[in-house]
Predict the structure.
Amino acid sequence: MPELNPRHALVLFSGGQDSATCLAWALDRFEHVETVGFDYGQRHEVEMTARRNVLREIVTIGGGWSGRLGPDHVLDLRVLGQVGETALTHDMTIAVAESGLPNTFVPGRNILFLTVAGALAYRRGTKHLIAGVCETDFSGYPDCRDDSVKAVQVALNLGMDQRFAVDTPLMWLDKSETWDLAETLGGKALVELIVEATHSCYLGDRRARRDWGYGCGQCPACELRRAGYERYRARRAAARART
Ligand code: ZN
């Protein structure tokens, strides 16, 4: 059985705002950081491009970060698209289903992601799994909740006879506080990289550059990102006005 290294971390990295902030958080704390991304037939190559751009640039921001960033792993989980249609994997309009969940919900997605990441971490001897899930501003996905994530951590540890730690640095932050965290970790340069290079829009739209980044401006992901960014900027402006 491999010994898990407590100074090593594996970040579940999608190329979005949340996982890019988590990547900076990990680079700030751990000696060695690897990333894992999942190809599950999501509608847009744009996410994969965002991942590559963030990985290339983020190492220039924090002192010593370039020496800490290890390999990136991309794993095929297209089985999720075979299980059933959702607005993330098929061309359909984003809407709220009868269950009250948006049809961007892919049942079991985060459970599967954490399980596969746990299997990879086992092979790599990595103790920490880092996921940018969030209970505060989330889209209603039950497998992003704290209890769900902790349950998966327990299942991994029992099923692999290990002591993994699943870290969720954004769990209790709203989207504006996630921007604050980025600024604390990497200053304006990191905020700028997240605006410019990460991708959140469900429609994969990168035609228009807005203050908060690229996106259609209409879908639920754009709406969350815009509102969070505006609250973050307003708070900064108010703090400057007081000094
Ligand atoms: Zn959008």
Q: What stands out?
A: The mean pLDDT is 90.
